[in-house]
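Hi all, long-time lurker, first post. I run a small reading group and we've been trying to get comfortable going from sequence to structure in the token notation. Rather than ask abstract questions, I figured I'd post a concrete chain and ask someone more experienced to write out its structure so we can walk through it together at our next meeting. Sequence below, copied exactly:
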Amino acid sequence: MVHSPMRRSVIFVLFLILGFCSKGFAQPLETFIESGIKNSPFLADFNNQKLASKLDSLILIASYKPQINQVTQAVHYPSGNGWGYDDAITNGGNYAALVSLAQPLFVKKRIQEQLQTIELLNQTVKQNAKITLIDLKKSITAQYLTSYNDFAQYQFNKSIFDLLNKEQNTVKALVEKGVYQVTDYMNLQIVIRAQSIAINQAFIQYKNDLSILSLVSGFKDQSNVVLTKPNLVPVSKQNLENSPVFAQFHIDSLKNKNSKLLLNQTYRPKVNFIADAGFTGITPQNLPHNAGTSLGINLSVPIYDGKQRKLQLKKIDLAENTRIYYKNFYSTQYKLQSDQLIKQLELTNNLSAEIEQQLLDQEKLIEVYRKELESGLVRFLDFITVLNNYTTTKATSVITENNKMQIINQLNYLK
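-- Answer (accepted) --
Happy to help. Here is the structure in token form:
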């Protein structure tokens, strides 16, 4: 065997690549998804929003409990000859040190409706978190499939290289015997070099897409990663009711109803119990003798607001009509997209079966050509042609398999 500089460089590059693969450790799709979930700032944000909504509920309840404040006031109204406020109004000054209490009354229903508002906002956060999780899993899976497609292409190119490399001694011996020409051996060398380039290209593409996968998932250690073939199975039946986007339409309907309740609540009479105790007087020196307390009820009744209530209710009705339009449109689009993906998957499966049968036939033909090549019964260029046809079919097979997995990915994470 001739060890040319080109041949040694090819062996060296393959040694590096194979060294990478042999030292690598298999990382399934689930590992990257788990990493993406763990490192996603968006999911962390939604989790904090859910915790914050619980605090909002506690804050709301606390706001309807007795509110106690300490009020200190010292106001002097200076006056002189011919100027100053009327003493009948100011008494010359106002000095006070009071503790006041205010307690809203009959607010149980108002609290419930406002707590419902917070709960609906919390449900929206939960649905947004589900949508983000679906998008995250879908994008990581799509990038994983792309990276694995590169890796599968690299492996195939390597197998073709090994096959060609194995035939070198046979062709060289037949050239020396005069069965084949020197140009046939040179042709083989050129094909081997081209296959080496293809291996390097596939490896570089694999590393590039693997880097993108690491960015999407937050998986930091990509130095020795070897991807495994994902086993994606399409869901048996798509259920629109399980869609977080569709669930949000229901939540929006409840929000509109709750908005009407809150609006009506603002037009109900409001009653507050008020009380204070302390010192108040018109001169500082008399404050110790002006201790006292007061109790009372504050009643507020809306009478006329320029028909604002009616206009606000119309706005809520418009929002509800818009929600219904979007819900109907989304339901139609969801079914169309689901049916389209299912049909694409069926056609792709049929194509994949045809390609696999073609590969089996071509592999049998290659084996026959290899045997006849060793006996010098076929032209070497015919063998290369058969091999090139097999390479093209195999590349189509890899792409078709990736397309099938991508369709399943879209189907499984349809939202």
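A couple of things your group might point at:
The mean pLDDT is 88.
Residues 127 and 376 are 69 Å apart (CA to CA).
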